[in-house]
Specification:
It is built from 24 helices and 17 strands. By secondary structure, it is an alpha/beta fold. It has an eight-stranded mixed β-sheet with strand order 5-6-7-4-8-9-3-10, covered by helices on one side. Strand 12 and strand 13 form a beta hairpin. The N terminus is likely disordered.
Amino acid sequence: IERDGLLHPAPRLTDQDGSARSFGGFSSADPRSAADGAIGGENRAPRGDRSDRGDRDDRGNGRFPTTVYERCLTADQRRCVQAFERLGEAGTAVVVEADRGRGKSSAAGLAAGALAASGESVLVTAPSYRASEEVLARAAAVLDDLGVSVTRERESNPRVLDTGSGSVRFVPPTTAAGLVADPEATRRGPPGEDGTSDGDIDPDVVFVDEAAGIPVSLLDRLLAADRLAFTTTVHGYEGASRGFSIRFRERLAASDHEVLDARLDEPIRYAAGDPIEVWLFRALLLNAGPAVDSLAVGATPETVRYERLTTSDLLDDEHLLREAFGLLVAAHYRTEPNDLARMLCGPNLSVRALLYRGHVVSVCLLAEEGGLPIECRRAIYEGERIKGHMLPDMLTSQLCDEQAGEPRGARVVRIATHGAVRSRGLGSHLLGEVRAELKNRGVTDDTDDSEGPEEWDWLGVGYGATPELIGFWRTNGFRTVHVSTTRNETSGEHSFLMLLGLSDRGEALAKRHARRFARRFPAVLTDALSTLDSDVARRALASTGVAVDADLSAYEWRVVCKAAYGPGLYDGDPNPFRRLALAYFTDRGSGDPEPSEVLSVREERLLVYRVFQARPPGAIAEALGYESERQCLRALGDAYAALTDRYGSDFAHRERERYE
């Protein structure tokens, strides 16, 4: 696995000189570990040897009590806790990397407990509470060792450890990001189980456990914290996402924080070089990854080959399996062992890929959905849930379309392109090949040798929306049909559903729900989505693929023209302004992020903020850089003058002339 040079190495051993090496004898140390100021790379103490735990050298300047270091099981852990001592200094960020079973979460918990004992408010977040249980457990143990009285909101698996003067508290990533980036908005939240609201928390230090399992957008918001620590897994699903190791590390380095790196190599869960750990890494593909960049750089839509990768194909070629699964893992912020099992054994899942000289450069996972009998569709409509049919379930149960489960379709569960060849159109090329295959012969599962059903009706996708992703999917012909009104707790984004019709029946389904979405979305923006990002909102409407006519009466054109050209006010009757704005955004149609010929991006954001989300002019002026509320409202009038010029009726144009 290592000698072929294609994949990341398995877990590391530690040489007597303290340098990290892989089981195959090749160096796998992160270049950052050799940088000035890095922690680690010193001689490791034998496992269980506590003889030097009271040594002042291992405790840095001794900010944490000796008791904290007595709970460390390895010299690596002691050096990691020593790094966490720096969190007592303003503007500090500590990043700890390790393979599984090295004790990084325990070290974070020991430091969190020491900080809470000294009166600090410590906030802990992770992709799930389960992922951070060890942090809370170690923090509680330290507080008990120090004789600090602790109030827990519950005895088993507590999420809050309150000392009176300090605390350790777990909150989900979205809540944590809100607390440090927008504390005033978070204060409006409801009380929690312990009787306090999240907004009552004013964290001094933030610990982010398994940080690579959290989307970069949330990690960016956490940078608003003055002191923070990130722990993450080097090899394994938790740390495989390139989002943390590349994109976020670059942003962290560019921030105002002084960054201190630490690394743990000495195992605790296993003996050094334990063959069971090696077996586990291979069996679960914990060290799977894309082909190295040099093997992919020549890939273009003209030089790749489209293939359906069956379960037999993947199991017969371990390199192919590792590259395909590794690419899906690297592009996604959260992967579990079950995802590998589903990819290989899921009855309704199949894999498609683009290969360049035998190496996977783009891959997608498809799920067959729909084609449900009438009894099943009726049960879903009346409240039952059905597994394996996400899009038909949502369209039927939440969007009141009892016929939505009848057409057959395929949902893109995941899609990823090799980082070395992004922005070359390979993702779009892969979707185009999938679309052509579905229209020609349909999809079959990997255990069926038949050619599958005669016709498939739609291709769909559900994902955590960003402006860039909306543009990508719309460019490939997909229509927005739904936006969730709540953020996903893990991704921190609102989920989008989009459809692409492949048959007359599928196109009718996509258009029907796109029209319904366009009609209801402005009202939702005023209510449940009043804080939705303006760029997400405007691109959602521009990605429906249906144009909604403003259809204003003569009276309503008078209202608009009077505000746009004369002394009228928007507040008197917002309805015609909303309908005209809806007509404009749905007419955009392409989802193109570039400015239209009618309005600038700034003016489009102004329409979303004021007309759809009803935000106060003062807040809009500050957000968009207007000098005053008056200038902001004048800009709104100018925008509607441009819209009237573009969409106005003959009557509206005659009305305009009265003010010229």
